[in-house]
Amino acid sequence: MTILVTLDEIRKGNIGLYDEVTVDWEILSAGGSSIPMESGEKIIVLDLLKSAAIKSANNAAYALAKHSGKGSIPRFIDMMNAKAKSLGLENELEFHTPAGLPDHMTRKKLDMGTANGIYRLSIEALKYPEYIAIARQKTAEIKNGSYKLKSTIHLLGKEGIYGLKTGYHTKSRFNITVLSDKDNANIVTVVMGGKSPKIRDGKILELNEKFHENYKNKDIIKKDIPVVSIPISGGYVADVKTYGTKSFSKIVKKDADVSIVTEREKKLVAPIKAGTVVGSYKVLVNGEVVFKDKLIVKRDVEKKKLMDKIMEIF
After folding, report:
1. Per residue in 108-130, pLDDT tens?
2. How far is CA 178 from the centre of its chain?
3. What value does the mean pLDDT of the chain take?
4. Cβ(81)–Cβ(88) under 8 Å?
5. Residue pair 258/220 in contact by the 8 Å Cβ criterion
6. How many Cα atoms sit within 13 Å of 215 on the Cβ side?
7. Which of 35, 93, 110, 236 could form a cystine bridge with 103, CB 3.0-4.6 A?
8. With 80 as the cut, is the pLDDT of residue 306 above it?
9. Which among 8, 252, 211 has a CA at the least distance from the CA of 124?
10. Which candidate, 53, 227, 65, places its Cα nearest to that of 131?
11. Which fold has domain 222-313?
12. Smallest Cα–Cα separation from 219: which of 249, 243, 246, 245?
């Protein structure tokens, strides 16, 4: 969440990617995973983002919070919780610090999050390509190349995994949320409470394997492939092909019953212009409607001229 809120502030123009953040005692007080920092040192926001995303550096997260919060970490925490509420996650996520450290280290209330909350927040992260571009890096350099980061996600590049974030402390143990894109199925998997990184990562691979054994991403509608042809009278063609306005795919069980139901005129009459809506359709998976769209024609169908009709008679 710290990274997303920081990126929100960058998108709004309130802070810049190359702003210099001055390190102070409050930033240095963050324990746990960290990058080298000294009091009075200036580090650009981009390097702090890389450090928080790739290495899970807590002091980098504190620095981002203080800069984005206009010098106030408590103000930034309010921004984090406000974003959680805007996403409908106020009952799933509760923030009291920028880095999720245990309460005995921060002397604050313990940050709380459910697996479902982390899952939905990870889906929100997919809307931030600038974050994903950083999170998918196994290594990166900061501070003009003087310090090298190594990702805490050991599974990067395996089974289509390309992100996203790890977390650890003594009370919550080893946690991870990963993004993977395999067999055209882009999925999010969350594991919490692992006894070790190896056990946690093994569970991710096990869950993803089970998913791919039972589910697939099915291309149901492609906007350049006709949904149905409708007979037409008074024109130069016997029928006209109709299309959906957009493509649609969905992750479904491999044995799912997928069907398309159309609602349209039994017969059309020329002329018809390209783009004309001639009906609608809905996609059902196991009898449940999962998608609706219009049916349109993509080419003009001219009305047959009188002379051509006469010529047909003779």
Report:
1. 898 999 999 999 999 999 999 99
2. 11
3. 94
4. no
5. yes
6. 15
7. 110
8. no
9. 8
10. 53
11. Peptidoglycan synthesis regulatory factor (PBP3), Domain 2 (2.60.410)
12. 249
